[in-house]
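Sequence in, structure out. Go.
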Amino acid sequence: MIRLRATIKLMPILAAACIFAACSAGDGKPSIPKITVIDDTDSHPGEPDVSVENIVHLDNAEIMDWVDENTIIVAKENEALDKMSLAELADSYPRSLYLYDLDTRHYTLLQERENSNLGSAVLSPDKKNLIYSEYSLGDPVYSVMNMDTLDSFRLTGGEIGSAVSAKWADSETIIGVAFSGGAYTASLDGQGKAFDKLDEKGLYIVQKIGETLYYNTQYDASLKALNLVTLEKTSLNLDNVIDVLPSPDGRQILVLQASGSRTTLLLCNINGDIDRTIAVGRELSGISWSPDQRIIAYGMRGDASGGTVKGLYLYDLLTNRSTRIAVDVEPVTTAWSPSGEQFVYTEWNAKPYRSGIVEINFSLQR
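Output:
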């Protein structure tokens, strides 16, 4: 089994809740979370030392999420089914969902559909249910599957019509944008309805974090927040936003901005106040938080010395340093294991998907 080992040689560090302690301002509003480090020797961190010990590749497979430390969810071509019937896809088999055991390297079929590619699989926070997409050509259809029974239902019909996006608001509720342009919610019994607390149309981002809904539209890409208790709307003064990624504890957000040929990743508090810039490049992708909120993974394509540089990076919030751990990689997704001891990425560049399971030695030296 491939492990990502995080070895702190200089100082003990508190668990996730203590690493990022939210400090309250005098007016009662949350201020930028500060990084709290316990140092028994009163010494200070030195230079980070990050090295890749091993990368194991899974060719033609897309890694999507973690069931546990030994099991991942992947999508790959299913040769037990007939090839796709559409002429444009006639040379390929349908892509099905599988469980992959890192110890035995064995695939177990999880879900399949004739003439359809399955993907975009994301487990609920309690890992009891799975959102996944189903597509051939055109827009995908989203479904929800019970991981125990493997029964599933589509996010279609009724007030939803069909879903453009689907995310977990919590372990029992899905939220997203409907084809009508408004927001919707759906429960695990398959019942979906329009989200009546937000009357905006042409929505692009819909992200629920605690009692706040972050959103923007296709016509106005500035990020806004809706307090779901008071129904007060607030502009966060962040323009050209194309994605919002909440931290595991919901006290911080990563904001991805795109303007022209420049893409910027920002760390902000829940009010949209900017703490720091994580990365700037032509393209940024595959962004994810480590479970302890210390490390941010991302892929970047940029320009340097008249050429194109692309790679996979880990940004350490404790040391404010970014380290490239793989070159010539363009990840579309990255994912951390529940303990944060393992790390995977998937890349695709007009070729079959290719995934990597990375073994890293990360340390702080005096």
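Check: The two ends are 30 Å apart (CA to CA). Confidence is low (pLDDT under 50) at residues 1-46.
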